[in-house]
């Protein structure tokens, strides 16, 4: 089951997700992962289209399991979500990402921003607003330098509750990205009312962009939609120079992907992007 991941770590593949016994074991281990210091964040750079210097990062969670090695979030986030453990884990992520951003600012990269992913359960949690506020205060950060990424399907699940949550978060000044955009079923009416600042085009549409006319048409309409709603448009999963050029020409604002920078440890992020 163990395979070498694309960035050199041993990742467990989805064949492992099937096993109930493995899941139970992971759940038991995950309960102790925070106190045992086994969770860590990797950071993937975000680049302004046409620019060569990153202006921010997305924090991506990893679990360095004592026996199984480095686990991908696709393996353990669903377990954390179902068990409710995602709430304390999510708070740990917010705090660790804010601490890292503070360290980068203090080291002279004061214009960098940070994006943090929120799971559906976190997004529905009444404690979210206070934990975001707490993390920003503890690390003396300007809320505008933090982006919270919520998937389109999470944001569309309970539209009224989502609007309330998004309004409370944006009132604080944090930025909101609608992640995996194009895979859910947003009504344009709700999208218009939603106080988001960023649309992230799902990488499924980027993959065959240069070869598939339908994908190119979808990407170009998402970009046009984002522009008309005055949202920043981000493309994820940029793996080739041709995709980078194509997305730049279509007017995409920000690019992210292996071609520009893989998720990496904090120290490496600084040496690659300063
Ligand atoms: P996502 O938010 O859509 O994150 C993008 C995923 O695409 C990341 O996978 C990233 O490593 C990968 N990626 C980036 N560039 C490329 C590329 O050019 N090609 C390809 N094929 N993939 C690329 P990762 O790190 O395994 O994370 C998977 C998902 O796990 C994330 O998807 C997000 O939904 C979730 N996740 C990660 N960290 C957290 C977290 O702290 N909290 C929560 N709630 N979810 C998280
Ligand atoms: Ca994301
Ligand atoms: Ca995404
Ligand atoms: Ca995704």
TrEMBL record:
Residues 23-274 form the EAL domain. This is cyclic-guanylate-specific phosphodiesterase. It comes from Stenotrophomonas terrae.
